[in-house]
Amino acid sequence: MAVKLALQQIRHCRAGFAELVDLAAQAERCFLEQIEIDMAGASWFDADMCAAFGALLYRFGHNLNTVRLLNIPNLVEQILSKNAFLSSYGRKPIPDTWGTTIPYQRFETKDERYFASYIERELVQRPEIPAMSPRLLKKFRESIFEIFSNAVIHSETELGIFSCGQFYPKKNLLVFSVADLGIGIPGNVKKKIGSQLLPERAIACAVDGRFTTKSGPIPGGLGLKLLSDFIRLNKGAFVIVSDKGYWELRRGQTLTDKFRNAFPGTVVTIEINTADTHSYALRSEISPSEVF
Amino acid sequence: MSDALTIQVYEVVGSVLCVASDDGQKVHDRIAAALREGRNVVVSFRNVNGLTSAFLNAAIGQLYDSFSEGEIRAKVRVEDMEQDDLVLLKRVVETAKAYFKDPERFSDAAREVLGDDDA
What DSSP designation does A123 have? Predict the structure, then answer.
């Protein structure tokens, strides 16, 4: 007999992630089951949330479950077919006429170069993507690479890295999300300092920049700090979900919370304000001779 | 640095995008090998069009584990970097110096900032 689950609206906000972590918890013990997810109540699905959703479904499949998505509302089915998410679940992809999707894709941790090509192809070289200033585009692209590198270096995932993006033209918003099924930030912090922190505080710690979970000869600890600095200037948003922790930076304000259930890894989402005209001018010039 | 070995990052990585830590490691290994031979090194980022802190940590930051700050300052020079990439590299270097001066500092910083929660 099938395990029947249901999904409501999924937006890229705390409530949307809460819905997904609850789904994860309900299927946590499923093994060799038929999992049917009734999506009749999912009247909206922010396409970028496919990274987190896809990661969860992949994990269900890894536990030898068969996943079926049922009663997907037409609009949602269209969106999730355009970004190729539903191709993994038997649907045919449909052309993205308006070019607003950055397709859903799964990567192995060794695929950093492949990921870079995907970003160039699907984001940088596409005429549909909004005209951002060259410097903003460069910062955005580098931010995405930082997120991916962060997952490669810290997550210890064996099940891959999942990414997806969406452009919302009316809101001047470009959202990109990367999810992994690794140890999670709280688990990583615990390994490093030996103490258990509240998950949302562990995330805050990781973003702080004065701390790295890296050990050994290659230093670290900068990636998430760089991202938060950029997002503050851009007046966009930066959301991290890891284990039970929720951390959000939006319009300069941080918000933390704790979920009832855990995401089995980490999701990092950035929302870029594409209308940003900030010049990202540097406060002072640095000479190459001053770097070391 | 007339006798300097010039390392073209683009040639070592084979891409305009220098984003992977593994690629940074290749650059690091060349720089470190040259330094061990007592040579000056010029690291050229000509034609590089994207960098991450992960790449620079591996390529440059890691040098501070094996070589002194003075040695690196005297023997390594970077060229052909845009200003914002220089800013990123400067942050990577400062972080690396702090990390290797006291690797536990980062743990202490975490405890100092947050305390233990015993969650």
Answer: I
